[in-house]
Amino acid sequence: MAKERVTVVEIAHAAGVSKSTVSLVLQGSPLVNETTRAKVSAVIRDLGYVYNRGAANLRQSNSKSKIIGIVVNDLTNSFFAELAVGVDMVVQSAGYVQFLSNSGENIDRQREVIASMREHGISGLIVSPARGTEAADLKPLVASGIPVVVVVRNVPGAKVSSLMSDNHAGVMAAVEHLVGIGHRRIAFLGGFADTAVFGERLEGYRDAMRKAGLEAADDLVIGSAPSRAGGVDAVTRALAIVDRPTAAVCFNDAVAFGVCDGLRAKRLEPGRDFAVVGFDDVIEAKTAVPALTTISVDPQGMGQRAAQLLLKQISAGKVDAEAIVASVRLVVRQSCGAGRLNDGKRIAS
Fold it and tell me: What are the sequence ranges of the domains in the chain?
């Protein structure tokens, strides 16, 4: 009788791991490394824990929770806060609650929080994957019939729905605008080079430069963390080039804000001495000084759309994977030096 009262929490404590990791071991998940698996398995044997797999499966199949999981890779970026607000607006009106977590670009952290969400019986998951996420990381969810919608970053080979922005068309429009107002040395600043989003935006930059008959020199492409600090670093390096650029398309708005900071540190004024274009159109873009010219993807709208797609799959009781590429639009403000506002033009996906 005593053995039956051993809990997963006690096993986790004795093994020095999280409850989620113990659950992954019990489920036979491939996401746990062999050293950790062996250590947890030894504790399970020592404590005499008996895993009732039939009861666990029954709990999972019968659990119709009203919880939606959402995992983002960088909650310090206001884009993802706005995305989460959009999700919440939809799921709350449908009678669900949101279980939000930040992976901080840590793949192990992401695995643990997803495992924990499964333990709480989530009805579906929206995830902006951490760097390095593979299809195998989402396979246990797919196998258990839990609907998944991947946003912002795709996961090749994963049999889940995806909602992406038209990254290529967005950056092309930004470069074309800068060329149209007279710039010839245009840099592409920020972003991690090992992500698909970076690749798509960089390709848009290079295609637009080529179309304009301009050289997209390697020294004009400067990667960095997709953050404000990363923007400062990227523009500092860009300004050190002998034939330095006069304008930049930034990986995202966070980088663009950092670029503006870095310019001011060099006594250069964004929009007057150097043109800056972002990507996202977060809430602060409109109120920044100068107001940020950017490619708008409507973060809240993206969250709403992702939630609607997920709820449709939950309601249908089956997962029919859909791949959606959302249109974006160029919003011209002051940071590019155009000196006027407009309502933006839509770019068809």
Answer: 3-59, 64-164+299-327, 167-298+329-347
